[in-house]
Write a structure and sequence with these properties.
Elements: H1 3-16, H2 21-27, H3 52-62, H4 66-73, E1 79-85, H5 86-89, E2 107-111, E3 120-123, E4 138-142, E5 152-157, E6 162-170, E7 175-178, E8 187-189, E9 194-204
Parallel strand pairs: 1-3
Antiparallel strand pairs: 1-2, 3-4, 4-9, 5-6, 5-9, 6-7, 7-8
């Protein structure tokens, strides 16, 4: 995040809420001139940065999260992804045949924007994915992304089991899914036994 990007993000955040930079500062209980262009550089031309406290007060004032602000700073689209737990994901009605989210019953999870790519979130439970993912973590999954060997993935079997693994091997005869937790063994399946595999993009911890 560069100096100009931070200030651009603040200007865009203000614009999203129909405010000027001065109006945004005032709503946050700050000096109305705090975010004026004249305050963004010192008399010697050195850049001035907004403080963490001022950013926190601004985000609280407009009901935004840091993920939303980071998306603006980095030029990405902030938004939300449909969210369910791994237990729900085992049930029918939440995914189509290609592994894309469908139906009702999904909650919303905030996440930094990822362009127009379709994503969804799964909330981890239990210890089978430690130490990579712990109970309560949310993993963001992109069902349309290319999957390569070594990727962390979510896979659903033809029998309905959903698991987070590492794609260790894939050919016409076998799909091997390595466990993230060394206490759990790898699993091997025939291709016909796997309904779909989707790549994990990142986790919110």
């Amino acid at each position: 995040m560069q100096h100009k990007d931070i200030w651009r993000g603040l200007d865009q955040l203000a614009g999203q809420h129909g405010l000027s930079a001065s109006g945004l500062a005032k709503r946050a209980g700050l000096d109305p001139t705090s975010f004026n262009p004249s305050k963004r550089e010192g008399a010697n031309g050195r850049p001035r940065w907004p403080t963490i406290e001022s950013l926190a007060r601004v985000l609280d004032a407009v009901g935004a999260g840091f993920y939303d602000f980071a998306a603006l700073v980095e030029g990405r689209r902030g938004g939300s992804a449909p969210l369910i737990g791994f237990g729900q994901a085992q049930q029918d009605g939440f995914f189509d045949d290609a592994g894309f989210p469908v139906g009702a019953g999904w909650d919303d999870a905030r996440f930094p924007g990822l362009g127009t790519e379709t994503v969804y979130a799964l909330q981890v439970s239990g210890d089978s994915m430690e130490p990579a993912y712990r109970a309560g973590d949310r993993i963001i999954v992109a069902p349309g992304a290319e999957v390569k060997l070594g990727d962390r993935v979510v896979a659903k079997t033809a029998q309905g089991e959903v698991m987070a693994k590492v794609l260790a091997r894939k050919n016409t005869r076998i799909i091997e899914l390595a466990s993230l937790n060394p206490d759990y063994p790898s699993r091997e399946f025939k291709p016909s036994e796997i309904a779909w595999i989707a790549r994990i993009l990142w986790a919110s911890q």
